[in-house]
Amino acid sequence: MDKKEFSRILLRASRKEVIGMAKEAEKNHRITLLKEPARTMVMLRVKEPVKQSVFYIGEMLACHCVVEVDGVQGAAVMAGDDFEKVKSAAVLDAVHTGKMKEAGELEGKMRRLGRKQQKKREAEAAIYRGTKVDFHVMEDGDGHEAQI
């Protein structure tokens, strides 16, 4: 699993899921906080769908942390201000990056979690598709097109 996919799944995971996955690594490895969890503001970058140009929509509260797990650095930045979750995410990043003994099991958990997240997004999308309104062009009584 590449880092981008790993991070995407981790960002969408619940607090309980992230902290739970990190507990095993925290028991078996020496963890050093290089940068304590802290609040920060980050700019939200958005890609405009038509021209594909990038612009900044505003700022968002985030939390960041950097750890070292048996000599391997891990870092995380997450929306909100949950210090414990972001620290656990940084630990998981180090385990994944350093391909530690838990990495194989962690990757399996992350793949299962990714499939669960995908199913949830598909179910939500199906609900929204049911509320979609179709607009059709009709002629009014005078032969003019009217958009409804």
Give Rg in angstroms. 22 Å
Helix content: 40-55%
Question: Strand fraction band?
Answer: 25-35%
Terminal-residue CA separation: 47 Å
Instruction: Give start-end ranges of low-pLDDT stretches.
Output: none
Structural class: alpha+beta
Structure description:
This protein is an alpha+beta fold. The longest helix is centred in the C-terminal third of the chain and has 27 residues, at 103-129. The protein contains four helices and five strands. The strands form two sheets. It has a three-stranded antiparallel beta sheet. 45% of the residues lie in helices and 32% in strands. β1 (31-47) and β2 (54-69) form a beta hairpin.
Question: Features of this protein?
Answer:
148 residues; alpha+beta; three-stranded antiparallel β-sheet; two-stranded antiparallel ribbon; 4 helices
How do you describe this structure in short?
With about 150 residues, this protein is α+β, with helices and mostly antiparallel strands. It has four helices and five strands; from the N terminus they run ααβββααββ.
